[in-house]
Amino acid sequence: MNSADSIFKAIAHPTRREIISLLSVSACSVKELTAEFDMSQSAISQHIRELKDAELVTSDRAGLEQKYRLTAAPLKVVLDWSAQYQRFFDPSGHAWALVPSKKSTNRIDKKRRPGNSR
What we know:
Elements: H1 4-12, H2 14-25, H3 30-34, H4 41-53, E1 57-62, E2 65-70, H5 76-82, H6 102-105
Antiparallel strand pairs: 1-2
């Protein structure tokens, strides 16, 4: 079930994104992943199941444990989708066009207001 929707759904949750980050460094067991979070092993297993359904994670048996590792290729869907917004970034990687200008906020800084001396 490696559809774009399943991939975006899988990476939508911050815990799953953190699991992806951890697995990008090395393969881990559920026990090792659980040690990194303040949640139960069954909750981590559910997140791993969602990542496996999106084909972002595979597993190999290592003795009595399953070791999970990242399969990064499906993330190309995310990169391809986000490429349409690349024009909003300059070559240096700054997001100038996405940041609201100070003119549009119409906020007056109290420290700079005339007659407001300190």
